[in-house]
Amino acid sequence: MKFSIDRQLFSDQLSEIIKVVPSRSTMPILGNLLFRLEGNELSLRASDIEVSMQTTMKVRGQEDGEVAIPANFLQSLIAELEDETIDFTVNENYKVVIESNVGDYEINGRSPEEFPGLPRLEEPAEIKADKISLGRMISKTLVAVGKDELKPAFLGVLFQIKNDELRLVSSDVHRLVYIKNDSFESELDDHEIIIPTKFLNVISGYLTENGEISLIVGKNHVKVEMDSKEIYSRLIDEKFPEYQNYIPDDNDKIALFATEDLKAALKRVSIFSDRKTHEISIKFYNDTAKVETLNREQSTSAEEFVDISYDNEPLRIGFNAQYFREMLNNIDTEKSILKMDSKLTANLLLPETQRENEELKMIVMPIRLEDDEEVV
User: Fold this and answer.
1) Region of poorest pLDDT, from 35-39, 91-95, 170-174, 369-373
2) Superfamily of domain 2-114, CATH level 4
3) 328 backbone dihedrals φ, ψ, rounded to 5°
4) Which option is the CATH number for 125-245: 3.30.565.10, 3.10.150.10, 3.40.50.720, 3.30.300.20?
5) Of 160, 155, 153, 123, which is closest to residue 142 (Cα–Cα)?
6) Weakest-pLDDT range from 182-186, 193-197, 206-210, 213-217
7) What is the C-alpha separation between 289 and 281, in angstroms, rounded?
8) Could you tell me the pLDDT band of residue 217, with boundaries at 50, 70 and 90?
9) Whole-angstrom Cα distance, residue 243 to residue 105?
10) Whose CA is closest to 182, among 160, 214, 203, 215?
11) Do 248-364 and 125-245 have the same topology in CATH?
12) Whether the Cβ atoms of residue 300 and residue 272 lie closer than 8 Å to each other
C-alpha cells in the first residue's frame, strides 16, 4: 500500500473521524483507524461497535491495500507536521512508514481483518430534515439525556416519527425535554426509535449550515450520509416510557420572568450551595422571586431577589440549580414561563412564545428541601 496525501486535508479528516474512536475499549483494534486504498480514493473508518464512521478522500495512489493504524498516535504526528504533502508506505507485515520533509516515522499497523465491518440496514426508510432545524432539536434534547447504565432507554434521544412531524424527547428522570417540529418528511409513520447520544453528538457538527439531510432508519441501525461521509449507529433496543403522562397540563401557578435574570441569580447563589446537590430554593411572591441557599456544612448562605410576574398564593420550591440553569439555557426568548402546582410536583418550563412549526416543553422536577418550611 502506497500513497501521497495533502497534509491539511488529511489532518482535517482525522480530527473529525477520531471523535468516534473510543478512549478505552476491551477490543484493542478499535483504537485504530482502518485505511483502505483503491486507486486514488482513500477511505478511513472508525468504530466503537455502537457507532461507525467512514470518510473518503482523494489521494495520489500508487499501490492499493488495507491497514489499521493507531488513531491517536497518527493524529498527534500529523498535527505537528508542516509539510504540504506526506507519503505513506505500508509493507506486507503492516509496518507503516510516513515520510515528510523533516523526517521519516514508523508505526506498527495491524491486520485489517480484525476491524469490524459497517452495519447493514434492514428494512431502511428515509427521513428528510432541514439541517439547522434538526440540529436545533438535537441540541435542545441532549442536555437532558440520562447517564445511568441501569436505565438504557434514557441513554439516548427518543425520535417519534410521523409523515409530517418529528418529536424528540429526552429525560434523566430529574428533567425532561420535549420538542416537536411539523416541517419534516418521512417514509415512516407512527414509528419510534431511540438514538444513542454519541451518534447525535457526532452528526451535530454537520447540522449548522443550510441544506437538507437524510436519516436512513433500519430495523436496528440508523445511518446518515453527507458529502463523503457515512455515519452509522446501533439503535437502543428499549421501550421509552410514556412521557406524555409526566408532562403536566393543569399547573395553574404561573410565573413569568426574564430568562437571563433568573439564570444569573441561580449561577451566583449556587456558588454557596452544596457541591453535590446544588440545592437552592425559590420563593414565589407577587412580582418577586427570592432565590436562596443555605449550606450548613460550609456555613455559607446567599439570597437574591428577581422581578417576576406572578399572581397566586406564595409558593416555595427546591431545585437543583445546575439542572434548572441548563434548562433555562434551552430558552431562546427574552422571557420564560414556569407553570407550577405544588412544592413536590413536576414544574413545566416554556419559552414565552413558541417558534413557527415548533413546540418546546421542559420539565424540571423539584427536590425536597432539608429545611422545608411554609412560605411566610
Assistant:
1) 369-373
2) DNA Polymerase III, subunit A, domain 2 (3.10.150.10)
3) -65, -30
4) 3.10.150.10
5) 155
6) 182-186
7) 10
8) very high
9) 55
10) 160
11) yes
12) yes
Average pLDDT over residues 339-346: 96
What does the mean pLDDT of the chain come to?
A: 94
Residues facing residue 170 across a β-bridge? 177
Give the cell for residue 355.
Answer: 417558534
Q: What is the 3-state secondary structure (H, E, C) of the chain?
A: CEEEEEHHHHHHHHHHHHHHCCCCCCCHHHHEEEEEEECCEEEEEEECCCEEEEEEEECEEEECEEEEEEHHHHHHHHHHCCCCEEEEEECCCCEEEEECCCCEEEEECECHHHCCCCCCCCCCEEEEEEHHHHHHHHHHHHCCCCCCCCCHHHHEEEEEECCCCEEEEEECCCEEEEEEECCCEECCCCEEEEEEHHHHHHHHCCCCCCCEEEEEECCCEEEEEECCEEEEEECCCCCCCCHHHHCCCCCCEEEEEEHHHHHHHHHHHHCCCCCCCCEEEEEEECCEEEEEEEECCCCEEEEEEEEEEECCCCEEEEEEHHHHHHHHCCCCCCEEEEEECCCCCCEEEEECCCCCCEEEEEEECCECCCCCCCCC
Confidence of residue 318 (pLDDT cuts 50, 70, 90): very high
Q: Are 153 and 239 in contact (CB under 8 A)?
A: yes
Tell me the sheet residues that pair with 3.
61, 88
pLDDT tens-digit series, residues 250-287: 999 999 999 999 999 999 999 999 999 999 999 999 99
pLDDT band (50, 70, 90) for residue 187: confident
The predicted structure's pLDDT at residue 373: 57
Block residue for cell numbers 465491518: 117
Q: So where are the chain's domains?
A: 2-114, 125-245, 248-364
227, three cell numbers: 458529502
Cβ atoms 289, 340 nearer than 8 A: no
Between 3.40.50.300, 3.10.150.10, 3.40.50.2000, 1.20.120.80, what CATH number should domain 248-364 receive?
Answer: 3.10.150.10
C-alpha cell at 350: 416554556
